[in-house]
Write a structure and sequence with these properties.
134 residues, 41% helix, globular
């Protein structure tokens, strides 16, 4: 299920409509929907509907997302250095196609997990299962 938010529209009504039929709310870095002015309302409303939020940064996890998948500048730099190294070693010099990051971390908000009734493995175990930070 998804919803569309107009520029002048308030967030809560469309959010409640989406949450009433959702199992998970996927936060995307859209500044019109997810910003410092809307985050608290978004988290509180999703919590009231008992719908976990999957975020894209450690700060979103601290703010109230159940968990987030994110890449640090060091992880992005590592992947970029690998691409550059391949080019310097004779690989064709072109930009790689769009892809998910090879290196990422997972952060879990244990308090939110307990409150919503989730028993999640430790962050390191989740990263290992998903092939994250190595």
């Amino acid at each position: 299920m998804h919803g569309t938010l107009g520029r002048e529209e308030r967030l809560i009504a469309p959010l409640e409509s989406v949450l009433s039929g959702a199992d998970l709310l996927l936060a995307v870095p859209d500044p019109w929907v997810f910003n410092r002015d809307t985050a608290q309302s978004l988290f509180l409303t999703s919590y009231r509907y008992r719908v976990p939020v999957l975020g894209y940064s450690r700060s979103l996890t601290r703010a109230g997302a159940l968990l987030s998948l994110h890449s640090s500048p060091a992880q992005i730099g590592r992947q970029t250095a690998e691409w550059v190294g391949q080019a310097l070693n004779g690989a064709p010099v072109r930009l790689p196609p769009p892809a998910y990051p090879a290196y990422f971390s997972i952060s879990v908000n244990e308090q939110v997990a307990r409150s919503l009734g989730f028993a999640l493995p430790p962050e390191a175990e989740l990263e290992k299962r998903l092939g994250g930070e190595r």
